[in-house]
Structures are given as structure tokens and as C-alpha cells.
UniProtKB/TrEMBL annotation:
One of its GO terms (biological process) is killing of cells of another organism. Belongs to the channel forming colicin family. One of its GO terms (cellular component) is membrane. This is Colicin pore forming domain-containing protein. Gene3D superfamilies: Colicin (1.10.490.30). Keywords: Antibiotic, Antimicrobial, Bacteriocin, Membrane, Transmembrane, Transmembrane helix.
Length: 307
């Protein structure tokens, strides 16, 4: 809850500037805005706690839910001047003005509370899914650090960021990228190593990967329902064993093409979490998936084992 005796100083962090940007906000919790990746976003204004509207009001507006009927993108509400004033105040970060307008115009309307509460419950469910996704990634980074050290942890942390907003390479480009490093990789990772890594992969239950992927992908706008994890895991194990990466790149590329390049991070986290592939396996799998993203990623991955 808010500290009513203090002033909340919020510092909004935007990639390009320090201005309040309502478009980045997915939900509000305890008077603080968060992005769709669970990142805490904070406006530059100093806002007295008593002037802040409640989370329910902020979440209604952030998600275009009508304060009267509870419908999303209600055409009737949008025609009202009061609605335009409320939205304008929200977009300007004028929260005290927003609170006052809302209190005067909409606070007494209870006939559609059930519908509004239903939509707010969905927002809260989405919020918890985002939190679970953030926790899953944090658990993966922690396990990576404990098993393989700081450099490997840095690699895992940068993967989701590197894939954000990107498209995957086509199969031929990914193969060309991997080919540049194949000889050096094979000098470090021999046949015996490959067999051991493949055996570890074959011991994984595809259902566990699906569950991990589901946790990671919550809040990112895609689901695991369309992915055949049995087939994908089989292609990965076979690629590790045979050093023929084309079928694996085709399979992974087709998945990522439909769901976005961030899927590559989700697949990496999902297969590596709790899997005893060792540092060589970690490096090889990260490098192979990195071939679908960029050369820098491959170099960082193989650098973990001195290649």
C-alpha cells in the first residue's frame, strides 16, 4: 500500500528519454506502473500519495475498460467528454486531476461492478503470470551462475534482451554463421562429449520443457500450445550427436518465425534449466541457438569454454 505520510518520488525510465510514457504501462500495483515484462516504470513527477487514484481505477484506464459498463473499448464511453478528460489526465500523468474526475463522474456507478471486477480479475491474473515469468528467468540465471559462473550468467541474462524485437535468421544464414566456428567448436567438444550431452538431452521429459516454456512465456504474448516439444528436443539431441544442424535450425526457425525471436530465449532456458549437460553442453546449445540470432552471441557462448 501507499505510504500516506510521504511523497512518492517516481523516476520513469524510458529507453529514449526520461518522460512519462503511458504506452509502456501494462498494469499498476500499489500505485506503481509496470511494463508487460514486469519492469518497474516510474514517472518523473513527484506525486503525493493521497493524490493517486486506486490501482483498480488505473488498471481500468490502462486497459481501456469502460468505468460504466466494464466493457473493453466501449464505443459509448469513448464519446463522453469525461472519458476524454480522464484519458488525457492519465496520459499526461496528471493523477490528482484523474482521481477527482473519476470520483465525481464514475465512483457512484455500481450497476456494472460485476463486469468491471471480472475484467480487473483478468488484469490481476495477467499480472501474476508476468511475475511468474520474471521469477522463472531469475531462477534460471541463479542456477546458471551456481553451475557455470558469472560469464555464463551474463550470457543467459543478455539472451532475452538480444532477442527482444528481433527476427530469427533464415536457415542458410544460421548455418553459415555456425560454420565459421564449427572447427573451433569441434576441437573443444569431441565425439565423447557430444554423446554425453545428447544422452543428457534424451533423458529430459518433453513435458518438463513444455512446463518451463509455459512459465517463461507468460506475459510475453505467446503460448506453448503450438510447439511439439518431443520433436524439437529430438532434433536438438540429434544435432548435438551428429553435428548436422540444418534440421534443428529448420525446426527452431519455424517455431520462432510464428512466435518471435524471444522464443529462442524461452527454448534455451526451458531445455537447460535443471538439465545436467555440463558447461560444454551449455556452451554448445547456446551457440547453436545463437546462430539464429547473431554472430556476437555465438562468440560469447563458445568463449565460455575457451574457444
Amino acid at each position: 500500500m501507499y505510504d500516506n505520510k510521504s511523497t512518492i518520488k517516481m523516476i520513469f525510465r524510458n529507453m529514449s528519454n526520461d518522460k512519462y510514457d503511458y504506452r509502456l504501462i501494462k498494469y499498476w500495483e500499489n500505485g506503481r506502473p509496470f511494463s508487460d515484462r514486469g519492469v518497474h516504470l516510474m514517472p518523473t513527477q513527484e506525486i503525493v500519495a493521497e493524490q493517486m487514484p486506486g490501482d483498480d481505477i488505473l488498471n481500468l484506464i490502462a486497459n481501456n475498460i469502460c468505468a460504466v459498463c466494464g466493457e473493453i473499448n466501449c464505443p459509448h464511453w469513448k464519446k463522453e467528454k469525461s472519458y476524454q478528460d480522464v484519458v488525457g489526465a492519465y496520459r499526461d500523468g496528471a493523477f490528482d486531476k484523474l482521481r477527482r474526475i473519476f470520483k465525481i463522474k464514475y465512483a457512484a456507478l455500481h450497476m456494472y461492478d460485476a463486469k468491471k471486477n471480472e475484467e480487473l480479475e483478468k488484469i490481476n491474473a495477467d499480472k501474476e503470470e508476468i511475475k511468474e515469468s520474471v521469477k522463472f528467468a531469475a531462477d534460471f540465471h541463479k542456477e546458471t551462475f551456481e553451475k557455470y559462473g558469472e560469464k555464463a550468467e551474463h550470457l543467459s541474462k543478455s539472451l532475452a534482451d538480444k532477442t527482444q524485437g528481433k527476427n530469427v535468421r533464415n536457415v542458410d544464414d544460421a548455418l553459415k554463421a555456425y560454420e565459421k566456428y564449427r572447427k573451433d567448436i569441434n576441437k573443444k567438444i569431441n565425439r565423447k562429449d557430444r554423446d554425453a550431452i545428447a544422452t543428457a538431452l534424451e533423458s529430459i521429459e518433453a513435458g518438463d520443457i513444455a512446463n518451463n516454456f509455459k512459465k517463461f512465456s507468460k506475459g510475453l504474448g505467446y503460448t506453448s500450445g503450438a510447439i511439439d516439444f518431443v520433436d524439437w528436443l529430438s532434433e536438438l539431441a540429434n544435432a548435438v550427436k551428429t553435428d548436422n544442424w540444418r534440421p534443428f535450425f529448420i525446426k527452431t526457425g519455424s517455431i520462432a518465425a510464428g512466435l518471435g525471436a524471444t522464443t529462442v530465449a524461452g527454448l534455451a532456458f526451458s531445455v537447460l534449466l535443471g538439465t545436467p549437460v555440463g558447461i560444454l553442453g551449455y556452451s554448445l546449445i547456446m551457440a547453436s541457438l545463437g546462430a539464429l540470432i547473431d554472430d556476437e552471441w555465438i562468440e560469447e557462448a563458445i568463449g565460455l569454454v575457451g574457444i
